Fold this sequence. Notes:
Radius of gyration: 26 Å
CATH topology of the largest domain: Rossmann fold
Amino acid sequence: MAVAMLIAASTLPFVSRSGDVSPPAVAARANAATGSTHWVLAVGVSRYLDPSLDLAFADADARAVADTLAEQRGRRVYDRVESRLLVNEEVSRESILGNIRAFIEKAGADDVATIFVAGHGVRDLLTGTYYFLPHDATPDDFFTKGLRVEEFNDMVRILQRHVRHVVVVLDTCHAGAVDLQAGQMARADDFAARVRADGVFLLAATRPGDKSKEVRRLGHGVFTYALLNALRGEANAGADGLLSLAELVIYLGAEVPRLTDGEQTPYYLIAGSDVVFADVRQPNSVVVFPFQNQDRHSPDNDWMRAALQESFYFELAKVPVLHLCPLPERPTEPAPLRTRAQRLGCGKFVTGSFIVDGDEVEMRARVVDTATDSDEATASVRGPRADFAALEKKLVRELLAAMPTVRAYRLMLEALGIGAGEGDAENGAQDAPPPEASDDDRGSWWRPRLSFVAVAFAEETALAGTPVPADEPIRALLREYEAAHDAKQIERIAALWIRFSAKQHEAMRRYFDHARDLTLELADVTIEPHAEEATVALTHIARFVDRESGKPVRLEVRQRMLLVRNSGTWKIERIESR
């Protein structure tokens, strides 16, 4: 029975069991568990019965991991995702073991189980026994209320006999906590090394004696922040959008030290083959294939094939909500366009055709959803061949306007008071091209999301032992912003702004009418306060059903929110699309 175990804790150096520092071989893509169920148990304790044990983000880490893994439902690796979330008062020795036992009773032989646990790992100084501290465990009774690591190991061994793979993620040693040594209880910097099972895939976030970092501006522990970015596509080395555990190890082994200025160094330990863990292709990823000349007897017009492909690629690249896959190379063997797009990890592809009829040319284009092999949008134009450039631009504009994702993005921009680029206002494209990547970005196959994260960590480390920045009112504003959007209450949203124009009000109403079953998530939040002003960088993730087409839509856009204090209360001054 193959078992993959991923341990995220503060325990070991970044070497394999043999001492070889080379990363593991990337899994064959055939290992993807198509048709299986992913069972996820996420546990996080930030609030303890004894307040001196409290942490900042263990509960937020558990929620984010559960939510992010739930997005794998119905994608290429798992048909179903069944999640259980336990945070703070819900976490006890019995609730952890009981939920693992429930997985054992329900999971199938082809399924995958992931267990994420964030909180305190401690050691009994008298007996040497290791425990995870649930919410109700204290220094006086941890040996009766704590979860012994041997109990956890036994349950994982039973679970692994019932499923195809088990993945365990532990983050159990935190720098932000008080000194845990009290009576016969002490912090266990090597807790993760005590979690053992045959066939282990193991990753630890820090070496023995180091501690996991929590940076308030990130809203997560640093390790979980990097893990979430990996699951959202930052760690996929290949072009297929499938993330293996080996790729995850490689990414975290470089990213966590970068984010912590070398304070944390991950580790992996492998016994067994690598496996595909997640489908991390970017939402709304699109590849553009060459257009077909329908008149095979007129090869002189074949230049239009590449011209149309390049024009679509250039214009689509201007729309931040779309993620362009690289221009495909000529295939070595014939394959349907849908198959080629899926191999590239693209959720959609653009294709089309043209025919020259005397002095006129007719061009057709369509966007195809690779999951269903159905058209998402279509467009066609006809006119004088001499006006090819103008017709080409009109075709692009009409196809973009017909795409539910782009149509919704345009409405969202208007509702937020963000102007679309001149000449492309109707399709949501922006004239200005995206910022050119730096040399450092080009040298990596992942792109760091925020350049100031390491600086934020350094500032917070320098302030260790002093109160963290009072950014809770800003986080409360963001929670109200999410809730007001989910409830589609425009007046609640308007109350959060310094100025909310009548034009924005009307645009928001159209956006809400357009988006059925809307939910909003603000992810990857970082806060930079500046006296009476603050800058919030975040990922705006909206999920809904397009009322016109009936298709599910996911909008994911990086934004910068600028806040100001107004009579002592934080308000939104403006929002910029990044």
